Amino acid sequence: MAKKEKLILITNPGSSSRKYALYCGYSLLCSLHFEYEGEKVICTLTDEEGKKHRVKREFTGLANTTTQLSEILTEEGYLTKVTKLDAILARIVATGEYFSHDHIVDEECLEQLEIAKKRTPLHVPVVAAEIKRLRREFPGVVTIAISDSEFHNSRPDLMKYYAIDTELADKFEIKKYGAHGLSVGSIVDYMKEAGILADKTVVCHVGSGSSVTAVFKGMSHDTSMEYTPLAGMMMATRSGSMDPAAATAVKRALKITEDDELEEYLNKKCGLLGVSGQTDDMREIIRLRDEGDKRGTLAHAMFVYRLQAEIAKMVAALGGIDAIVFTATIGERSDEIRRVCMQKFEYLGFKVDEEKNQRGIDEGNRRTNIAAEGSKPIYVIKTDEFKEMIRKAEKLL
């Protein structure tokens, strides 16, 4: 008898939107996207063929979307009295040892989420509240907290510790945990299956949040994000790594009184947005540069340089490089960023084929190699964090 595929709901809550995806095994059935349109919340459903339509319902706010989720999925024909959810998955981006692993959500996990909210006040509260609402909406359904850091547990200790008292670091769990582990894990699993995973590979997850990871024989060796996703390279609205004394100077200059407020500023008002003064969208940044806008030009140059610097750091960590991968929104879509970034790495044996780079990933495919003849591989690969979450959840179901 064939094994029954499990029906899994994945939640991806943001500060200004809610996204859900319903899977049967590894097959996407539909996705739901709740967002504000003016003062109203609207819901768009996308089916397995990519067709979209607006759900004809009224919502009083994002926090209340879960109360109608079951009814929507039932009305749309995805759930019935017989066909019920087998599991709910939620990605957790949180510091600390506990959430460096996946967990079935129970009372202990809920208590750990409360602790994590204090350590990571910008990332954990939204998902913690979402988990509680979904558990009420779908009583009895197994809920799993999927770690976004677990992939990076394989790193040597020297890549995890700060240069502080190690007893202090251990006691208060002040270490480099990394993030984007689901994305990088997805890329590594795909490359293994495709038979293209080289021993020394650098994976560049370049999107609104960006990180660079050194992968040695399929395992994380080092990564640019650290205690929180704020560290590492410059991002859409995040400053990236910054001298703590400079951050304190920003706090004084803006007359900020609370540390949480400073953290929010560095996470939400810096990066491309802060430097350009106008936008956090890389497409707009490139347009500003092309129009000669001074701050837009600086934002573009800084972003590329920070990306190059993180790649170079990972090459040093690996003691060389055999292949490089670009993924996530900017990495997959911006031929300009890939082209300019790779100009600095011809000395390492990389050269971009301009035509292949501009064409990018052909429709229906998941990857392309944009390297010129004789160059080491330069892959552009679509990441699939949701399928990676399902793969990890299977170990607990």
What structural keywords apply?
397 residues, alpha/beta, Nucleotidyltransferase, domain 5, eight-stranded mixed β-sheet, six-stranded mixed β-sheet, 14 helices, 14 strands, 21% strand
Assign the CATH topology of the largest domain.
Answer: Nucleotidyltransferase, domain 5
The sequence of SSEs as H and E is EEEEEHEEHHEHHEEEHHHHHEHHHEEH
Q: Write down the domain tally.
A: 2
Mean pLDDT: 95
Q: Tell me, what is the CATH class of the largest domain?
A: Alpha Beta
How much helical structure, as a percent, in the residues?
25-40%
Tally of DSSP helical segments: 14
CATH architecture of the largest domain: 2-Layer Sandwich
Biggest sheet details: 8 strands, mixed
Major sheet strand order: 5-4-3-2-1-6-8-7
Q: N-to-C terminal Cα separation, in Å?
A: 19 Å
Q: What's the number of extended β-strand segments? A: 14
Q: What does the overall shape look like?
A: globular
CATH H-level name of the largest domain... which superfamily? ATPase, nucleotide binding domain
Low-confidence stretches: none
Strand content: 15-25%
What would you note in describing this structure?
With 397 residues, the protein is α/β, with parallel strands linked by helices. It folds into 2 domains: 7-147, Nucleotidyltransferase, domain 5 (2-Layer Sandwich); 197-386, ATPase, nucleotide binding domain (Nucleotidyltransferase, domain 5, 2-Layer Sandwich), CATH 3.30.420.40. It is 36% helix and 21% strand. The protein has helices at 69-75, 107-119, 124-137, 166-172, 181-194, 244-253, 259-268, 271-276, 282-290, 294-318, 328-333, 335-342, 354-359, 385-393; strands spanning 7-13, 17-24, 27-37, 40-47, 52-54, 87-92, 103-104, 142-147, 200-206, 210-216, 219-223, 323-327, 367-369, 378-381. An 8-stranded mixed beta sheet has the order 5-4-3-2-1-6-8-7, sandwiched between helices. A 6-stranded mixed beta sheet has the order 11-10-9-12-14-13, with helices on both faces. β2 and β3 (27-37) form a beta hairpin. α5 (181-194) crosses α14, α9 (282-290) crosses α10 and α10 (294-318) packs across α12.
